[in-house]
Structure formats: C-alpha cells, structure tokens
Design a protein that fits this description.
By secondary structure, the chain is of the alpha+beta class. The protein has 5 domains: about 5-85, Immunoglobulins (Immunoglobulin-like), CATH 2.60.40.10; about 95-200, Sandwich (Immunoglobulin-like); about 205-300, Immunoglobulin-like (Sandwich), CATH 2.60.40; about 360-490, Phosphorylase Kinase, domain 1; about 495-560 and about 570-705 and about 710-750, Transferase(Phosphotransferase), domain 1. About 25% of the residues lie in helices and about 30% in strands. An 8-stranded mixed sheet has the order 1-3-6-5-4-7-8-2, with helices on one face. It has an 8-stranded mixed sheet with strand order 9-11-14-13-12-15-16-10. A 5-stranded mixed sheet has the order 18-25-24-20-21, with no helix packed on it. The protein starts with 6 loop residues before the first strand and ends with a strand.
Length: about 750
Amino acid sequence: MKYHNPSISSFEPQEGPEAGGTVVTISGQYLDACSEISATIGSDCVMNRRDNVVNETTATCRTTSSAVDSTFPLVVSFDGAMRQSQDMFTYRPNPTVADVQPRKTIESGGITLTVTGTGFNLAQTPQMIMYVGDEQFTEDCEIHNDTMMHCKTPNIMTSSDNISRRKREVNPLGEASFGFIIGDVSELSRWSDDNNVTIEYFPDPEYFPFEDNPKSTRGGIEQIQGRNLDAGSSEIDVTVYIGSVKAVVETLDESVLTITVPIDDPGRECINGTTTKHTCVVVYHGNLPPINIGTVQYPRNESSNLEVFIGGVCVIVVLLLLLLLVVGFHMKHNKKFQKKRDALLLERLLLLQKRVGEELDNLNADMGRQQQVSVVLPNNVQINAEDVKIRYNELTIERLLGHGPDILNVAAALENVVRGAFGEVHLATLKAGGTTCQVAVKSIQGDKDPSTVVKFLEEGLIMKDFEHPNVLGLIGLTFDPEGSPLVVLPLMKNGDLKSFMKKTTMVIRLKQKLKFAIDAAKGMAYLARRKFVHRDLAARNCMVDADLIVKIGDFGRSRDMEDDYDYISQDKKAKLPVKWMAPESLDRRLYNEKTDVWSFGVLMWEIFTNGAKPYRQIANRDVYYYITGGNRLPCPENCREDVYNVMKECWSINPKDRSSFKVLTQNLSTIHSLQMQTDMEESQSRSGSTGAKDEVNRDSYLHPMTEVAGHEAEGAADTFISSANQQILNRDSYLHLYEENNDAFVMEMKDKP
C-alpha cells in the first residue's frame, strides 16, 4: 500500500464578496488521496465531492458569507489532517449596480447593455436575468473593469406572455423586470424592482435584400434598408461583414443601416467560409441568425485582363517586362488605396477627438452615447471615446527616456512596451482626477503618414482592455496640438526582465525566479482566456515593476483570435524571434496558445540562466533544423530537475503534449511551495549550526551579490551543439533565410521539395 502526503500550493481567487458564492480553486498534490476532505475560509467553504470537484492536483469549494474586510487562510482537512495555505482570502464589499443603459432590447436578445457600479472584478461568472410573466431568462455578462460590465439581453422568443403580445401586434411588446446573478449577492437579483425601472422589449428588426444583386460598389458609404432596425437596438449591436472583412457601422435608424464598405475588394470568401461568385454581405444583429443581404461587385481589374491578353500574343521577354510594369502599377495602386483608407480612418479619429473634447465632462453621465462613438482600425482594434479622454494639458512631458544613467533600465524596457520602428518614449507626469503619477508617453517620430499612424495606434491600443496584475495595461490615448497621437503607459521602475536580471547587483534566489515564471504564466493564462496569442514572448518583453511583479508586455505582434484557435500569418517577410518560436511557427507560420507555451519554455530558461541568450552558438537559420532534430536547450546550472521538466514539456514537438498556461501556473506554484519549504529547512539548519549571522535575510528573495554573476548556462550552451551541423541537411531547398540580428531574421517561404 502506498501512502501520500497531500499538500496545498496555492488557491485563487484570493478575494470575493462578503455574501459568499466565490468558487475557490485549490492547487496542490495528492488532494484526492483521502476519503474525507473539507475546507474552511473563516467559515465553511462548501465542497461537494460528488460533483467531481476533487482530483489529484485541484479541488474547488464555494465560500459562504463573512464580514467585510475579514481575512482568513484556507484550511483543508484531509481525513482530519489539517493543511493551511500561506496566502489569505479577503472578503470585500458586495458588488453594486448603479445604472443600466440602454434599457431596451429585442425579442431575440443579444443587445448590449452597459452596467455601471462597483466591485465587478469580484464577480466570476456574472449573469443578467430577465423576468417575463412567470418565466425567467438568463444570459452571461462580460466584465470590462471594476466599475463596468457589458451584458447581452437574453432571448425571450419562447415566452408565452411574449407570444400573446406579438399576436396582438403590440409595439413595444412589453416591459420586463430584470436583475443580476453575481455569486450569492441576493440583493441584485431583482435590481430593477428595487430601483423602479424596467426594460422594454421590441419586435425583431427586419432587413431587406438588395434590389440590385449584385450591387455595384467602389467602397465607401453604402446603405441597407429594413424595418424596425433601431427599435430596441443601437449601432453597437450590429456587425456587418463584406466577404470576410468587417465593415464600419456608421448609423442606424428606423429603416436604414449605413455602413462604410472596404475600398479594396475583400474577395469571394464569406465570413461563414463559403465562396460566392460576388462578394457577400451578411448582417449580424443581436442573437438573430446571420442575415444574407445579397452581394456587392467591385470594378473588374482591367490590368489583370490586359496581362492575360498580352500573355497570349507576346514573346516571353516582352511578357516578363510587362509583368514587371504591372507589378509596379499594382503596388502603387494598392498603396494609393491603403493611404486613402488610412487617411479616412484618421479623419474619423480626429473627429472622435473633437467630439470627446466637446463632451468630455458629460462622458460619465452618458455611457450609452460613449459606447456609440468609436473608430475601428484595420485589425479590428476599436478606439472608443473612453480611450481618448485624457487631455493633453494634463500631461507634462519631461524628457526623452534614456538621457541619464538613473533611468537606463526604464528606457530599455519601454523600447519594448509598444515596439515599432517609428516610436520614441518620454517620461511624463499625468495630473488627472485629483491624482498625480509618473507615466511613459509613446509618440511617433519621423514619418507621420496615415499608414504609420494607424499601425502605431494598433500596436499600442491592443492593450487597452487588459485588466490583470501580470499584464501591462494601457492608461489611455491623447493627441498633441498638431493632432499626432500619444499613447500613455504605466512606468515600470525596474525595466524589462532580461535587463533587470543581467544588471541587478543582487543575487536572485531560486524562489524569486520561480515567482517570476509564475507571474508570467498567470499573465499568459489571462491572455489565453481572452483568446489573444502573443507571438513574441521573451524576457525582453516582460516588464518588472517596483514590487518585482512581472507583467507581460510588447503586444506589437499579438493578435486577437476571436473564435479561431489558430492564426496563420500572411506576412511573408517579417522580423521573427526565431530562437523563441515553436517549430510549427517556423514551418507554417502557425500561431496559437501552444506556440506561446513553447516560447514560455524559452522564457523560463532565460529566467533560470539570469538572462543568457538561448542557442548562443546556433545561427538563426539553423534553429529549425536543430530543434526538429531532437535537440533542446540544456538544463541551467543549479536548476531544479522538476523545473527543467516543465521547460522540456513546453518544448514537446507535438503541440498537444504541451500544457496550457493554467496548468503551467498550477505546476510552478506547487514547485514554488516545495522550494519555500526547502529554503526554510536549510535556513533552520544553518541557524542551528552557525548562529545569528545566518539569520540575516534568510527569507528574502534577493541576496547581496558577493561577486560578479556570469550567465550560468552560457558555458553549458557551448557544449550542446556538437551534433548541430549533422542535423542541418538540405536546408537551402526548404527555407531561404536572411539574418537580421541575434534575436530575429527575415524569412521568405519557398515550396517544399
């Protein structure tokens, strides 16, 4: 018979509402090794084993009510043997709801309501509930930040009371009371009754197909006709796809939906994956099924027809010359249209700035209007009025970062915050809302044509919706007097992780390195839940704040996956961080959470080698063949075996064998607890044998450096490439590689032999 000693490594979340109802996930080892398990956080934390909430490494329990601001450890009983967590759980005031706008919907639901209040970050799976007659209907809500969440109205088509009203052609069909389900906070379940308000529900809108099908277009403003379009809805509830490209919704009234159609032909593939003769137009409105409006036809490309004609009658030499001319014409033609599109976007963006400047004092009082004023950039990065509410006169630009030895680390870090060939970073002071703080301000230097400005905004504003302690967020956007955008970012006192580890005068202990890795894993787990793939995870792109908390930064290569699991890059010539990339990314330009996990393994290796360069003696063009030949980075010096096993699991050649970031966080937390216990035992042993001198800093994460610390693994790195050249065969027939620098190269794909 084998005996196991269950242990607790961590739990999350570590705070919840006083009313209870928070589902706490416990991580540890051998949690299912006993027959009876129970938990308390002050009072009972309800655990029902019949619901399969306990396995070897995780268990869950649901908190009960307690007093506000009371703090308790998690205590778990395993057949009477007690285990207590090091972290504490804190009961916070219950979430509150102050207002809901707009208070209208359609039968099929799916209409976005903006809910304002407090304490929403405590909610785990908030829901909206509507009461129609004697029936109840629920729909999930999405938390935006601690004071705002967005709720979709539920589908009430099946309500018997609603069907009766529809037969009598009542408009609006009726009113309904509503509330919110947030943990065990019972006072929100009938919020509308307590505040003497209701929500009106209207018949579903009806869209008319194009009279001329296909409808000719050259891009720009187009209209879609219908009936009851704005009854119970607004612009933010409507999405229109032209082919597979999202159009910009301009206005919505009772009978007309006005959109901006892409200037360039998006192609024949529809958003649902089907292919049509002409470009399809599909409308999504709330929860309604996709509505096929018809198709549009762009002007035929006469230059292509000319190429075909000349190709049949001209000799090969003349044809090649003409093809070169046509390619040049197309490049100039496409650049012209792209500049026209970007100039239109910037014109709309400056209009947004003007409107916000006129209405800034009323933004908080008119949340619904704020939602409707927005500009969508080409990669679906949306700029709302809330993002540009910083006034330029609230910023005091002090100096260009990097001018002075006291801020070199900060400068190095912020060069990576919003990476781009056109940006420069200044130290600034922001005075807003009665508070003053130092910030970093990214601006455009040099060429300020529309395409450069749009790309700059996309790289910075991709961070604007991130709310996590281990992900670098965005403070906001403003414009200087000349109309150039400025991106305002938090200031990271300790710079980027790579520079911090290489330049610090302190010895970083193993448990602090584990903490760095856990912070990064938590941040990446959050991005994965948000369906974001980073594509450039490395120590140089992780920031370290004054409290030594690591935050994921540099989202210049990130992409929002929406509902797609994989992202395939279409950029055939781009700087790539080769030595951090998974083999499938190098081979097929495929990106997803599992390719980020590979990069995380390399990041861990950087952490445990104090910032050493991976594959130091392997050329960038040889890395793909080296790793597909079965070679891996060596185990860093003085690194725990279980830590290196985590790295190797990240580098599994089959992506399915790589753990998720959630599992990586749990595994590293368990190792961290074991290391803490080991450090404590060693400290007690030293204390008993050497006296009081060893008591100094025995529990600290950083120790004074006694000698200059080299990179522990660089010597080992020299020894692990003996078979590298044997692994690299016929590479020039597969990839043509151009090295740019030590961390990236420009790659052009060729057909495989």
